[in-house]
Amino acid sequence: MKLFKFTLLAIGLGGSLVHSQGYSSECTDMSLIDSWLIGTCPTDDGTGEITSSVYLPNKIENSEGTLKWKIDGSYWSSCDDCELVDSGSTLQCYCDGTYASEDGTTTLNLETYIANYDGHLLSNLTGAITSIPTNSSYAVPTNFDVELELSSENNTCSVLGAYLTLNDPTDCYYLNLGVEYTWACGTSVDNEGWEIVGFAAEDCSGDAVATYTPSNVNTCLTFSTGVQAFSITPLWNAD
Ligand SMILES: *[C@@H]1O[C@H](CO)[C@@H](O)[C@H](O)[C@H]1NC(C)=O
Ligand SMILES: *[C@@H]1O[C@H](CO)[C@@H](O)[C@H](O)[C@H]1NC(C)=O
Ligand SMILES: *[C@@H]1O[C@H](CO)[C@@H](O)[C@H](O)[C@H]1NC(C)=O
């Protein structure tokens, strides 16, 4: 019996990393900004701490007025007045219901699928955490909006045709204007930590045509070929 227990424990340790304590009891400065859960958490050895973030809309949905876990749930499109309660362990929002259920205040215990893994707040909604991400050199932004100023004419951004405000991590963003068009140049503004990659193909397949990071903010990039779509990825500690 003892041997059996030992074997199980060894498998558990080798397979996935777990933190049993709730993050709200060990992390500090918990906040909710633009649907990002942000906190500063201690590393396992207790010598350091890391500020990291979890983007909640790609993990939670509004199901007929009730917050529930769901990949790409996008609860924010039908909920308002969201805040953290219970020391940051719980998300509370006022969410739209349906004809069968009334609008109302709803809560979700975030500690069910979010925990501190060696200093990083991570969600295991899509499966057990088996490795800890590297520490980013970018701080969690104070302003999550980044603007892309684009022109469909090859004019070194002298005249612009579109101003896109982006603030969601997105594998591929294609602005469907209902007509064929491509962007020829563009500038990123107020970029505190996003990597935005432009692609010629509408589905972001193929090689990157241009890459925006905080190091080339306010710089006009002229694209070698017309760009149709962008991937939008956080560079800071984010899940
Ligand atoms: C990440 O940062 C924490 C806190 O500063 C530190 O304890 C840890 O060693 C760092 N990890 C790596 C892989 O650099
Ligand atoms: C996710 O982590 C929690 C603890 O935070 C654990 O109870 C649960 O079993 C984990 N789920 C998965 C799918 O790994
Ligand atoms: C824009 O002009 C530059 C310089 O002439 C050229 O290298 C580039 O291919 C042009 N881009 C597009 C999308 O036509």
Automatic annotation (TrEMBL):
Domain of life: Eukaryota
Record key words, sorted: Signal
Chain segments annotated as transmembrane: none
Signal sequence annotation: 1-20
Organism: Penicillium frequentans
SMART domains, A to Z: CVNH
Matches recorded under Pfam families: CVNH (PF08881)
Name the UniProt record assigns to this protein: Cyanovirin-N domain-containing protein
Annotated InterPro entries: Cyanovirin-N, Cyanovirin-N_sf
Domain Cyanovirin-N, chain residue ranges per copy: 22-123
